[in-house]
Design goal:
Order of helices and strands: EEEEHHHEEE
Helix content: 25-40%
Structural class: alpha+beta
Radius of gyration: 15 Å
Strand order of the largest sheet: 5-6-7
Length: 117
């Protein structure tokens, strides 16, 4: 598994005119966090991808519903075998940590920090 590396601003990283890439578990962790930070309808070729943050902010008041949506996004990611919630915090911003089992038989922690709520 390989994906273009993103910097802290979500921009592609380029060194000496060449794109940098992440592989294996690092790529999978970046794909998961990118997928969760994506707003539904943002990708022109698949408008079903992403999280419907507007709906969640407007109509959902229970943290369990946020967690269920995020977990569904994680589990639908290619390369993910299972995911277990390790911690969550819904105090002004969304902070969730999942322990994810990958197809590489490794366990990685995926941290989601999202100010969209």
């Amino acid at each position: 598994m390989q994906t273009r590396a993103l910097d802290k601003n979500g921009d592609w990283t380029i060194f000496n005119g060449k794109s940098l890439f992440k592989k294996g578990n690092n790529a999978l962790a970046q794909i998961i966090t990118s997928k969760i930070n994506l707003v539904v309808g943002e990708v022109f070729y698949d408008i079903t991808q992403g999280v419907n943050w507007q709906y969640l902010r407007s109509y959902v008041s229970r943290p369990e519903q946020f967690i269920a949506e995020i977990e569904a996004q994680i589990l639908s990611t290619e390369g993910v075998v299972s995911a277990e919630l390790k911690s969550s915090n819904f105090d002004k911003t969304l902070q969730i940590v999942y322990s994810v089992v990958t197809i590489f038989n490794d366990i990685i922690d995926v941290k989601i920090n999202n100010a969209n709520i």
